[in-house]
Amino acid sequence: MNRQLDLQQDNTLKTVTFFAALCLFLSAVEYAIPKPLPFLRLGLANLPIMLAFGKLRFKHITLLVILKTFGQAIISGTLFSYVFLFSVSGSFAACFGMSLVYYLFIWKKQIPLASYIGMGLAGALFNTVAQFFVSTLIFFGTGASFIAPILFCNGTITGLLLGFFAQHFVSKSKWYAMLSGGSVI
């Protein structure tokens, strides 16, 4: 029994590590993509977090978000800058939004139309709202409202795209179906 528990914990650790490495890889890819405005991001590094919901417990997903956030900050050199505040607030808010959709609708299959597309939209919305509040309360005051429409449009589009990709990947990938990371909840 102890041996089986050790193997399950080892699988979980390997899965978290894999998803964290994938987050950092996608983050590096995203930094290489030219952006019309520096703050408009695709959120590619959130894709592994979306996929992790089907394979890991929430506490492991939270660890994954921590690893992603700090890893991105170290890679981009923003760990001790105001950009890190935006990243932390947006990442944890997105995780919260995605978990609401996943655990309320997808995990128990309560609503058949709820999918990873809904998770992507919720994650993007929560991320944008959190970053808007940080920018309003700490940095730019009411001037942040001028950029809000662009942020919400960008978040909606990228959330939809990531959600469509995740939905397709989860439904078609044999590799993902075989991936184990411990129990789902």
Features:
mainly alpha, globular, 0% strand, 185 residues
Describe this structure as you would to a colleague.
By secondary structure, the chain is mainly α. Helices cover about 75% and strands about 0% of the residues. The protein has seven helices and no strands. Helix 1 runs parallel beside helix 3. The longest helix has about 30 residues. The two termini are about 20 Å apart.
Fraction in helix? over 70%
Structural class by SSE content: mainly alpha
Stretches where pLDDT is under 50 for at least 5 consecutive residues are none
Number of helices: 7
What does the main sheet amount to? none
Average pLDDT level = 86
Number of strands: 0
The gross shape turns out to be: globular
Computed Rg: 17 Å
N-to-C span: 20 Å
Write the H/E string, N to C. Answer: HHHHHHH
Write a brief caption for the model.
This protein has 185 residues and is mainly alpha-helical. Helices cover 74% and strands 0% of the residues.
Topology:
Elements: H1 2-32, H2 47-52, H3 58-76, H4 82-106, H5 116-140, H6 148-172, H7 174-178
Helix pairs in contact: 1-3, 3-4, 4-5, 5-6
